[in-house]
UniProtKB/TrEMBL annotation:
Any Pfam family matching the protein: DUF2231
Domain of life where this protein originates: Bacteria
Feature: compositional bias, Low complexity: 303-312
Parts of the chain that traverse the membrane: 90-108, 120-140, 152-173
Keywords, sorted A to Z: 2Fe-2S, Iron, Iron-sulfur, Membrane, Metal-binding, Transmembrane, Transmembrane helix
Region (Disordered): 295-319
Domain called Rieske: residue spans: 193-290
Name of protein: (2Fe-2S)-binding protein
Length: 319
């Protein structure tokens, strides 16, 4: 059978096959459960949110790894030169010092991931732990005058860091660990007001899930009549906020406990590092309507509870 011009058969990506197999392997689940439980009960208080990166707007861990990785890469370049390099020794030690906060920030993130992500993340942690051990041994050899052995151990450590980086990249870009799972909402929902149901469809203080342009939306009507609407899928790992707890003007995700303010979607508590997209709301003729803020559509409808515009495509309330 002849091949069509300009086309070639692509073989299976063995590396991707291996990484996908790691996601499906339950062999380490008991260990994952034990480690995850211990990390979640660590008495970190507000430091936990600092380590997650709620103050930064995205996870701290990818930023924290630059110090050890950059130091060790620089030491590897200096080690190419013959003889002992005190600068390389210093860089190895600096990388070891920076590894601790990087590891702790990654650990608290790992404990709040999905099971498939945790399976890959555990191997990512093992590879980086091996790198720390190798660089620690390298530093001991360097300081004891065994520079050649120290350099060899350093290059082995850098190899382990590379394996850890490969697994970390799979976590971030294939499995979307640490990504904002609500980022697409403002780009999917069309401009204009969208009717999502009658006022009576939203019991006071209860979380109700609606759909606008195929995007799930959480609507909560307060006892005083004010209506709030947020993207319903949690920015952390797309947990269903409509199944969460509504209290004190906030909603808590039922999956990992992230807390968001209903008035503007702000992430009050982690592990979520990104706020929820929030919608403008109004009541027109006994119906609740929502729209993206600042969509540029002029407000023209008479009788709206707030400044309004021509209603857009109807949404739908779901149970």
């Amino acid at each position: 059978m002849s091949k069509k011009p300009g086309r070639r058969l692509l073989g299976q990506n063995r590396m991707l096959w291996l990484l996908d197999a790691l996601e499906r392997d339950p062999g380490r689940d008991q260990l994952i459960d034990m480690l995850g439980a211990r990390v979640r009960v660590l008495p970190l208080g507000r430091v936990r949110d600092v380590l997650h990166g709620t103050w930064l707007g995205h996870p701290v861990h990818p930023m924290a790894i630059h110090l050890p990785l950059g130091s060790w890469m620089s030491a590897a370049v200096l080690d190419v030169k013959p003889g002992r390099s005190r600068q390389a020794d210093l860089l190895v030690a600096l990388g070891l010092a920076g590894a601790a906060p990087a590891a702790l920030s990654g650990l608290v993130d790992w404990a709040e991931l999905r099971r498939e992500q945790q399976r890959v993340g555990l191997l990512h942690a093992w590879a980086n732990t091996a790198a720390v051990g190798l660089y620690g041994a390298s530093l001991v050899m360097r300081l004891s005058g065994k520079g050649a052995k120290g350099r060899v151990l350093g290059y082995l450590g850098l190899t382990a860091v590379g394996v850890g980086g490969l697994l970390g990249g799979h976590l971030a870009y294939r499995q979307a660990a640490g990504a904002n799972h609500a980022e697409e909402v403002p780009h999917v929902v069309r401009d204009g007001w969208h009717r999502v149901g009658g006022v009576d469809d939203f019991p006071a203080g209860e979380a109700v899930r609606c759909v606008v342009d195929d995007v799930p939306v959480l609507v909560v009507r307060e006892s005083g009549g004010e209506v709030h609407a947020l993207a319903e899928r949690c920015s952390h790992l797309a947990g269903p906020l409509s199944e969460g707890t509504v209290a004190d003007g906030c909603v808590q995700c039922p999956w990992h406990g992230s807390v968001f303010r209903l008035s503007d979607g702000w992430n009050v508590e982690g592990p979520a590092t990104a706020p929820q997209p929030a919608f403008d709301t109004r009541v027109v003729d006994g119906h609740v309507e929502v729209r993206l803020p600042g969509d540029g559509v002029p407000d023209t409808v008479e009788g709206a509870a707030t400044a309004g515009a021509t209603p857009g495509t109807d949404g739908g309330r779901t149970s």
